[in-house]
């Protein structure tokens, strides 16, 4: 017979038919050691839960002080300094209890407020789906002359046949690089990737630092459109450990890292204002020519 371990009893069933019991068995549920039952161990022991006299509160402290004063020796009355000390202890105890109660109430209110704010932020995050989100740190960083940066852009609308133009600006908002792409054909709306070799139009290294990137073009109606690097449609929202993330450009970005959310609709096109009907001028009644009164 194989030896089997019984985790509930914490001792082994021997193959010889006798059960060898270890000296002590710790039971974490009862928090005491299993020993042979005696008259003392058979008596249930219960903690002082629910016993109002288990702790000395301020009322009991005051009663003890009054009883002590009533039963004091007339020939040797209580020292006034001792009485003052006990009274001060009573006041300090009451103040501490009141402070603890106030702190507990404040903690409970803060927990409720935090939960309410989390729910409100979650609902607000869902309302961002379909809008355009701009990452707060939407500048590119150039760190070396051999670096070629792939720029993932998003075109909210299709271009006309003039193509699109990439523009790169330095920290002083000075244009350092331009490049024309897809000239002579239309570019569809959506994600579009271009590369910048980190140089100006003369082929000289632009220098380490941060740069702002945008694509400028005309849509099919001839209107000028500017697409900024770091601005993408919010395609969905995911929640991880109570934190809302926006799904954009194939990544999940926390909402606290978004600098702006605009109403430019996902799928292209801006919201056109409602066209008001043309107001027709009021028609004035025709003036009849004055007729001369015949002379009498």
Describe how the helices and strands are arranged:
Layout lengths: L4 E2 L4 E2 L13 E2 L4 E2 L5 H4 L15 H13 L9 H47 L5 E4 L4 E3 L6 E7 L3 E11 L5 E7 L8 E7 L12 E11 L4 E5 L2 E3 L2 E5 L2 E6 L2 E4 L3 E5 L34
Antiparallel strand pairs: 1-2, 3-4, 5-13, 5-17, 6-11, 7-10, 8-9, 8-11, 11-12, 14-15, 15-16
Helix pairs in contact: 2-3
Function: Required for flagellar hook formation. May act as a scaffolding protein.
Pfam families: FlgD (PF03963), FlgD_ig (PF13860)
Family: Belongs to the FlgD family.
Report on this model:
- 22% of the residues lie in helices and 29% in strands.
- It is of the alpha+beta class and 296 residues long.
- Among the domains are: 49 residues; 130 residues, Immunoglobulin-like (Sandwich), CATH 2.60.40.4070.
- The strands form 6 sheets. Strands 6, 8, 9, 11 and 12 form a 5-stranded antiparallel β-sheet that branches. It has a 3-stranded antiparallel β-sheet with strand order 13-5-17, with no helix packed on it.
- Helix 2 packs antiparallel against helix 3.
- The N terminus is likely disordered.
Helix vs. strand class? alpha+beta
Count the beta strands.
17
* Rg measurement, Å: 42 Å
- In terms of DSSP E residues, the strand content is 25-35%
Whole-number mean pLDDT: 74
The CATH topology assignment of the domain at 133-262 is: Immunoglobulin-like
SSE succession: EEEEHHHEEEEEEEEEEEEE
Helix content: 10-25%
Shape: elongated
CATH class of the domain at 133-262: Mainly Beta
Number of helices: 3
Low-confidence regions: 1-49, 265-276
CATH structural architecture of the domain at 133-262: Sandwich
Biased composition (Basic and acidic residues): 271-296
GO biological process, one term: bacterial-type flagellum organization
Keywords: Bacterial flagellum biogenesis, Cell projection, Cilium, Flagellum
Domain FlgD/Vpr Ig-like: 139-220
């Amino acid at each position: 017979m194989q030896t089997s371990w019984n985790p509930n009893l914490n001792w082994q069933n021997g193959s010889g038919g006798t059960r060898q019991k270890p000296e002590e068995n710790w039971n974490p549920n009862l928090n005491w050691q299993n020993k042979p039952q005696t008259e003392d161990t058979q008596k249930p022991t219960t903690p002082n839960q629910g016993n109002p006299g288990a702790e000395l509160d301020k009322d009991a402290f005051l009663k003890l002080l009054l009883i002590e004063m009533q039963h004091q020796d007339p020939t040797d009355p209580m020292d006034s300094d001792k009485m003052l000390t006990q009274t001060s202890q009573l006041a300090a105890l009451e103040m501490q209890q009141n402070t603890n109660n106030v702190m507990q109430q404040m903690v409970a209110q803060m927990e409720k407020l935090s939960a309410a704010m989390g729910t409100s932020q979650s609902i607000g995050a869902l309302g961002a789906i379909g809008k355009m989100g701009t990452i707060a740190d939407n500048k590119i960083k150039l760190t070396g002359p051999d670096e070629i940066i792939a720029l993932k852009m998003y075109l909210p609308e299709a271009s006309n046949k003039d193509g699109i133009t990439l523009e790169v600006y330095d920290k002083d908002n000075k244009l350092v690089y331009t490049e024309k792409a897809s000239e002579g054909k239309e570019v569809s709306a959506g994600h579009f990737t271009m590369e910048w070799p980190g140089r100006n139009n003369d082929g000289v290294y632009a220098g380490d630092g941060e740069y702002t990137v945008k694509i400028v073009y005309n849509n099919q109606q001839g209107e000028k459109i500017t697409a900024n690097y770091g601005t993408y449609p919010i395609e969905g929202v995911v929640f991880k450990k109570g934190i809302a993330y926006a799904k954009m450009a194939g990544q999940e970005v926390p909402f606290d890292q978004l600098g702006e959310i605009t109403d430019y609709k996902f799928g292209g096109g801006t919201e056109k204002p409602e066209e008001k009907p043309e107001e027709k001028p009021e028609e004035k009644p025709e003036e009849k020519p004055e007729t001369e009164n015949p002379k009498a």
